[in-house]
């Protein structure tokens, strides 16, 4: 979902840009996820005929149709975490999750 979130909110990204936004993901995992999303017609992969090679990823129209769902999930999570923090302000673990 994080891949979709960044492409939907920030637009077209090169592989290295996408990787920088997700420091915890391995290169192999990102490659696999992007391939799956491309096979599922959610992400478009554009290869430019230049040297060095240039590849960009963007959401397809089908992928863009997921953004309202992701936005709703984000808002729900944000509201939930604010509620949890409001009820348990001493919980540092919760604060770390919200602040990320």
UniProtKB/TrEMBL annotation:
Pfam families: HxlR. GO terms for molecular function: DNA binding. The keyword Transcription applies. SUPFAM superfamilies: Winged helix' DNA-binding domain. It comes from the Bacteria. Residues 1-85 form the HTH hxlR-type domain. The keyword Protein biosynthesis does not apply. Keywords: DNA-binding, Transcription, Transcription regulation. This is HTH-type transcriptional activator hxlR. It comes from Bacillus smithii 7_3_47FAA.
